[in-house]
Write a structure and sequence with these properties.
Keywords: Amino-acid biosynthesis, Cytoplasm, Isomerase, Lysine biosynthesis. This protein is of the alpha+beta class. It folds into 2 domains: about 120 residues, Diaminopimelate Epimerase, Chain A, domain 1 (Roll), CATH 3.10.310; about 130 residues, Diaminopimelate Epimerase, Chain A, domain 1, CATH 3.10.310. It is built from 4 helices and 17 strands. The protein is globular, with a radius of gyration of 17 Å. It binds the ligand N[C@@H](CCC[C@H](N)C(=O)O)C(=O)O. The site of the ligand N[C@@H](CCC[C@H](N)C(=O)O)C(=O)O has 19 residues, from helix 2 and helix 4.
């Protein structure tokens, strides 16, 4: 079978996009999904996303990590899917869609900047040297000083596979504060099992965590990731974070056909 794909990236977090509105994609073929994401034997990506029909909303998002397994929410992937839905004429400038963590609202402007509403957050675990929260995907957030030279893959894997998170694991974010409302972030992603150039649910977790532990008073935070810059804004009241938006570019790279 020949599969037509579209490649997108959001601040360097890259995805294979497939239009599955006709339900033709073999969704349980883990090996095929992993091969499509493989950078030597396939298209190459951090994840694969299916655009599907939804009975009431504009579309449905189905997300797989590059290991071929379906996973929890992907923020950058959601932003790229909004841009892809626009390219496919499914939406014009705004969208409501369903993902694994619930319903999302998004807008896309003329420059391709996608603003994606993320889930509300009210459960945050604060420990001595890290914070843990779920922003659609689970995230461990740790402040460090030597972020530039830090071995994110090695140190991230140690925490991801530690007893702290058991079999399910977690994504691991290392953070350095640059200014009151600017943070640099590097993320080890579960399911990719490596550092990626950006993680949308990760920077969302970092922004909320930094506000919660008092590192910033700002509710609009700039996050510098290896692949660019993202913005997260939110309302914060009584330890509850609502109207959380992840904002940044989502870019079409190329399209093609590959044998399954
Ligand atoms: N790249 C993502 C996160 C994708 C999910 C993650 N790897 C997991 O399995 O938890 C993002 O942009 O949010």
């Amino acid at each position: 079978m020949k599969i037509h794909f579209y490649k997108y990236q959001g601040t360097g977090n890259d995805f294979v996009m497939i239009d599955n509105r006709q339900n033709i994609f073999p969704k349980n073929d883990t090996k095929l999904i992993a091969r499509l994401c493989d950078r030597k034997f396939g298209v190459g990506a951090d994840g694969l996303i299916l655009l599907e029909n939804h009975p009431d909303l504009n579309f449905k998002m189905v997300y797989y990590n590059s290991d071929g397994n379906e996973s929890s929410m992907c923020g950058n992937g959601g932003r790229c899917l909004v841009a892809f839905a626009k390219q496919m004429d499914v939406i014009s400038n705004e969208a409501t869609f369903e993902a694994i963590d619930g319903m999302h609202y998004a807008t896309i402007d003329k420059e391709g900047i996608v603003s994606l509403q993320m889930m509300d957050v009210d459960e945050i675990k604060e420990e001595g040297n890290y914070t843990f929260l779920n922003t659609g995907s689970p995230h461990h957030v740790a402040l460090i000083e030597n972020l530039k030279e830090f071995d994110v893959k090695q140190e991230g894997a140690k925490i991801r596979y530690s007893d702290l998170y058991g079999k399910a694991g977690s994504n691991i974010n290392f953070v350095k504060q640059l200014e009151n409302d600017i943070f640099a972030v590097r993320t080890y992603e579960r399911g990719v099992e490596d550092e990626t150039l950006s993680c949308g649910t990760g920077v969302t977790a970092v922004a909320i965590a930094m506000h919660k532990i008092g590192k910033t008073t700002s509710k609009e935070i700039k996050l510098n990731v290896e692949g660019g810059t993202l913005k997260v804004k939110f309302d914060a009241e009584n330890n509850k974070f609502t109207n959380v938006f992840l904002i940044g570019p989502a870019t079409f790279v190329f399209e093609g056909t590959i044998n399954s």
